[in-house]
Amino acid sequence: MYTSVRDVVIIGSGPAGWTAATYAARAGLAPLVITGVEQPGGALTTTTEVENFPGFPAGVAGPTLMADMQAQAVRFGAEVEFDQVASVELTGDLKTIVPEYGDEPIRARTVIVSTGSEYLHLGAPGEERLGGRGVSYCATCDGAFFSGSTVVVVGGGDSACEEALFLTRFADQVILVHRRTELRASKVMAERVLANRKIRPMLEHQVTDICGQDKVAGVVCTPATGPDVLVPAQGVFIAIGSSPRTSLFAGQAALDRAGHLRVEHPSTRLLDASGTRTLPGVFAAGDVVDPVYRQAIVAAGEGAKAALDAQGYLDEISGT
Using N-to-C axis directions, what is the helix angle for 14-26 and 62-75, rounded to 10°? Predict the structure, then answer.
């Protein structure tokens, strides 16, 4: 049962949410974390191995890292509710959070938003089944696992080109598959890709199947004209974009062109829909505000900032 008014409610889990919860709990604020039900713990729960998070020299499984971060927050007094938020009201001294399955609305003096983002999927057969077994959405996270391999990158924008270039550090060959006649990336980025001898563009092709039993063995590419092509590969990196989870805050908070929440930098204070004022007591952290880095360690750092900002706000309104 919820108390009548919470000092801190955190919407969303993942590195940002759990770090914010740990910081807020250690400050004696007894935060409530509403995890979401679609993917509690965030995108790292679908990552088999994380090798670039500080403090784990041998690497750590993504689900294990998220479970440990949750346990750490709980140890200091955070409460966890495995529920989905149906609606929120972020204005006023007390914010209102309506859970999808809970019995009653929750009122809070501060809210930290850490709902993250989700990678756009191809929808090709084999994609979901081989997720974490050769199918990846993050070259920075998983590229080192494909040393000496042939990998496929799907996409034609700047992000896909950046992924392809990064993967040349490890893979022997990177095949960049794009459905259009030319890359959508900026001219400079496209020129770098086309000049790299390790990258082989396959334009006017679409990946229509990802093959393999227990791990990726290749992809089927369908051209604009002609027969399908089977491309042997050990990894597939899908880079067709991501979508921040911000629909819950439409009309109340400012969004950038890609739909990320906007904050008053360098703080984590969330801007209102006009983009000119902050929403008092509302903060945001992690991938939901980050169109650039999208790394777990960056999200964790922002989660710490959000908790400190929330603590400062509570001190301010209480006169301490």
Answer: 20
Residue 206 near residue 123, CB atoms below 8 Å: no
Query: How many other C-beta atoms can be found within 10 angstroms of the C-beta atom of residue 194?
Result: 13
Just list the catalytic residues: 138, 141-142
Give the other-Cβ count within 10 Å of 85's Cβ: 22
pLDDT value at position 162? 87
Map residue 46 onto helix, strand or coil: helix
pLDDT reading at 231 higher than 90: yes
Residue 188, CA distances (Å) to 119, 162, 193 in order: 25, 11, 9
Q: Is 273 helix (H, G, I), strand (E, B) or coil?
A: coil
Query: Contact, 115 vs 11, CB < 8 A?
Result: yes
Report how far residue 203's alpha carbon sits from residue 195's, in angstroms, rounded to the nearest whole number: 15
Element (H, E) at 190: helix 187-195
How many CB atoms are closer than 10 A to CB 235?
Answer: 25
Residues near 301 by Cβ (< 8 Å), separated by ≥ 6? 19
Kind of pairing between the strands at 150-154 and 218-223:
unpaired
Q: Kindly report whether the global pTM for this prediction surpasses the value 0.90.
A: no
- β-strands 117-119, 135-136 pairing: unpaired
